[in-house]
Amino acid sequence: MNIRFKNARILTMVDGQDIFEGELWVEGTRITYTGDAMYEQDIANAGKKFDRTIDCGGNLLMPGFKNAHTHSGMTLMRTYADGLPLHEWLETKIFPLEAKMTPEDCALLTKLAILEYLTSGITAIMDMYLAPEAIAKACEESGMRVVQVSGINKFGPSLEVFEERFLKLNGRHPLSSYMMGFHAEYTCDRELLEKLSALAHKYKAPMFTHNSETEREVAECKERYGMTPTVFLDSLGMFDYGGGGYHCCHMSDEDFEVFKKHNMSAVTNPGSNTKLASGIAPVKRFLEEGINVAIGTDGPSSNNCLDMFREMFLVTGLAKLKEKDATAVGAADVLKMATVGGSNAMGLDDCDVLAEGKEADIIMIDLKQPNMQPINNIADNLVYSGSKQNVKLTMIAGAILYEDGKFNIGITPEEIYREAAAIQKRLF
Amino acid sequence: MNIRFKNARILTMVDGQDIFEGELWVEGTRITYTGDAMYEQDIANAGKKFDRTIDCGGNLLMPGFKNAHTHSGMTLMRTYADGLPLHEWLETKIFPLEAKMTPEDCALLTKLAILEYLTSGITAIMDMYLAPEAIAKACEESGMRVVQVSGINKFGPSLEVFEERFLKLNGRHPLSSYMMGFHAEYTCDRELLEKLSALAHKYKAPMFTHNSETEREVAECKERYGMTPTVFLDSLGMFDYGGGGYHCCHMSDEDFEVFKKHNMSAVTNPGSNTKLASGIAPVKRFLEEGINVAIGTDGPSSNNCLDMFREMFLVTGLAKLKEKDATAVGAADVLKMATVGGSNAMGLDDCDVLAEGKEADIIMIDLKQPNMQPINNIADNLVYSGSKQNVKLTMIAGAILYEDGKFNIGITPEEIYREAAAIQKRLF
Q1: pLDDT band at A82, cuts 50/70/90?
Q2: Nearest residue of A to residue B318, measured between CA atoms
């Protein structure tokens, strides 16, 4: 389907926060034009035909947000066990429940998360969860762009399954891919980590993991190996082909050097880090060191929502508190993390900005809600005042999956809610 | 107009987080029934007639949020000057602009804020800003409940005007009242403060002020008077009839004692305190000391949005970070602050909970948005996952001012945006 967006403000993210008035064309899955407004006659003369013309009425088009760390299927456990610290929450509440979930459960619960992503303008997710085949299928059926990451740990799966998934879940569908990863240093033994590093080398693959999320995690790793998680994993060659860390709240000077040396990404998860009292990531320092920063919501059981607007405000707000400096980590940096930074981390080079030839992963922001008025600085306002309520439309690979509160993912919200309630009844 | 809400979940806030299924009646401005579902025939037999019956479809009714500290008219300066510390921001950017604003400007800009309050389920505001007569009129015309607080300081107005407003702006309209207050210790000289205290005694009136917002403010007060702002103001008898402090980030043991002695309220403003890097209020300690805590957004130029959901998540999240304890200040406490705690601070004893005889300040929360599914713990979910997108309806004193994205405040959003843009053009 070819779609023309006219009468728009456009924030391409190609040159920072510059916004211009004009139009944008989508043909198939790609953007074929962004620029000044065109006369209808010139468009007709050029032989261009659109299936639909959307008058944006001065609203804003921008690249969709990239949610660079999540566990979508955990929608089931949203507010199931709040108010616990990370390790107790995982071990006493989450792991026992997850042991009972089927791949079909995972697929349905992922679709529930997808509804929420779309309401928040999220057009791609980096998802680490159980049943990767089922998750890939759920995303492909829904039209969601997904980069899955293995969460292997000492409880499973086997290294053979790990390698098989890496081979099988890449190249099967344009919307879905699979990257190497493991749950965390503290849930893997040394032998497993060494074998994972060998696989990273075999395929020259970047590697991702939960990293230095809590003080306890760092302290225990130092006790075990005499090194921080980052330095220890690097000593095994784990990041020789890049990759990144989720959370990264508690970083040493040496840790920053490791990230720089291997061009790794730091994925910050401020919602989860506040709710679980894990700490505040040193985002300002990451930027100063030139390290790519992306933003993730983490899973809906530790956050508890999947909302990039909340995360963006928290990234800048917590940085300001941490640094005791109201100028720390401004809105322009945060917007870049939520779009281009996420694409960089996730290997989605074609989905980062609005430009000819790029994938049409686009959102429309309603500037006619009171929180966007009067219009002083739109880009700042997205970060400091934006909300899910401002998302009028979410498009992934040229398909409109969400528009004016209505979803188009091949299954109704009501059906998803009904099935989620049935899973809840069966498992709790 | 008499309205029957049927088929609802109801969170009355009378007994903490208990939620039951039933119905609620509004007759005139008051709630006349909350309880089990009634048969239509029994209602007819009892001679009850409703102008409208709203089928809530299982959605949640709860008391509207009380925004216990704001400067509504500052909508004009939203993202006008981000990234500055408090004092520089006030002195170089805000004060010069405010000097040029007319009462008519204030009224219009207050209406812009009211639109946003309604989208966030806020049914009452404690507003400190210029041109109180114009603000009262704007709120009364719109149907917004407002408790104004004087922001007198050494630049004005005169004490005569202060007293005249206190007398004139109370009792003029059921939706609007006026309380004594002043901007802050650091913008008033000692003589003015002594005279304000005398007026508090003359009228046995509670007194409100910005209090211990920044470390600098506390340090400078100690230099001037050898005491913290709270202790110094108390030494003048300022709080002998109660009142409260806005922000209260930097509190000493003695400060807590002053708040307890005078039954004062602490109004926390976490959005503003993060954005301006002012600090994290000791909310857990306030609760432990039995001090009433309310929540405010602060003004839209320092936050930059007027969203109680953002504030609620920040209250609990920042408390957890500050205490390094994921169990600190749970959702139940936060919901109480955002409703009953606000009413207590603002002297709105009839607007705190959903019960017979109380004012009908009610919101309906859409539980059929993906961020509320599956339903595990609704009350927790409001705080940890709720957003403006979940507000389906906002009612104040029995009048529906916002429903399914449409406003009913006597002026259209488009007209407000147009006039706000004209003010912007004239003043910037």
Answers
A1: confident
A2: A274
Q: Token pair for residue B262? A: 């005078």
In degrees and rounded to multiples of 5, residue B384 shows phi and psi of -90, -20
Burial class (CB in 10 A: 0-12, 13-18, 19+), B226: exposed
Give kind and range of the element (H or E) at residue B184.
strand B176-184
CA–CA distance, B268 with B363 (Å, rounded to integer): 22
Scanning B82-111 for CB atoms below 8 A from A yields: 82-86, 89
Tokens of A270: 């401020």
Is residue A345 within 8 Å of A274, Cβ to Cβ? no
Angstroms from A311 CA to nearest CA on chain B? 11
Token pair belonging to B95: 């004060």
| Residue B302 tokens, joined | 């320092």
pLDDT for residue B17 is more than 80: no
What's the complex ipTM?
Answer: 0.96
- Check if the beta carbon of residue A401 is closer than 8 Å to that of residue A407: yes
Domains of chain A, earliest start first = 2-63+355-407 (2.30.40.10), 65-346 (3.20.20.140)
Whole-Å CA distances, A189 to A152, A183, A214, A279, B23: 11, 11, 19, 25, 56
Chain-chain contact of B385 with A303 (C-beta, under 8 angstroms)? yes
| A346/A340 Cα distance (integer angstroms) | 10
Q: Do B305 and A116 touch (CB under 8 A)?
A: no
Residue with tokens 């206190």: B166
Instruction: Give the one of A325, A330, A421 whose C-beta lies nearest to B374's C-beta.
Output: A421
Beta strands in A28-159 (DSSP E): 30-35, 52-55, 60-63, 65-70, 122-127, 145-149
* Among candidate residues A236, A242, A176, A210, the one with its CA nearest the CA of residue A71: A210
pLDDT tens column, B43-87:
999 889 999 999 999 999 999 999 999 999 999 999 887 777 777
Q: Which of B17, B114, B321, B401 is the mutation pick for testing A, counting most A CBs within 10 A?
A: B321
* Confidence at residue A111, expressed as pLDDT on a 0 to 100 scale: 98
Contacts with B82 (C-beta within 8 Å, 6 or more apart), sequence order: A330, A331, A377, A380, A384, B275, B304
Q: Residue A303 — very low, low, confident or very high, per pLDDT cuts 50/70/90?
A: confident
**What does R_g of chain B's alpha carbons equal in angstroms?**
21
Is residue A141 less than 8 Å (CB to CB) from chain B? no
Res. B145 pLDDT band, cuts 50 70 90: very high
Q: Is A22 exposed, middle or buried (0-12, 13-18, 19+ CB in 10 A)?
A: middle
DSSP-assigned letter for residue B72:
G
Closest CA to A255 of A303, A295, A217: A217
- Contact at CB, B119 and A276, closer than 8 angstroms: no
Q: Which residue of A has its CA nearest to B390?
A: A389
- 3-class secondary-structure state, position B159: helix
- B384: CB partners within 8 A, 6+ apart: A79, A82, A275, A303, A304, A305, B313, B316, B331
Nearest to B28 by CA among B51, B11, B8, B12: B51
Q: Which residues of A touch B323 (CB under 8 A)?
A: 277
* Enclosing H/E stretch for A377: none
Contact at 8 Å (CB) between B195 and B153?
no
What is the pTM assigned to this prediction? 0.97
Chain B residues 338-397 within an 8 A CB cutoff of chain A = 368-371, 373-377, 380-381, 384-389
Task: Give the angle B308-B313-B318 at the CA atoms, nearest 5°.
Answer: 125
Average pLDDT, chain B: 96
Which residues partner with B4 through β-bridges?
Answer: B25, B53
- Closest C-alpha to A59, from A360, A361, A365: A365
B381 vs A75: CB contact, 8 Å cut-off? no
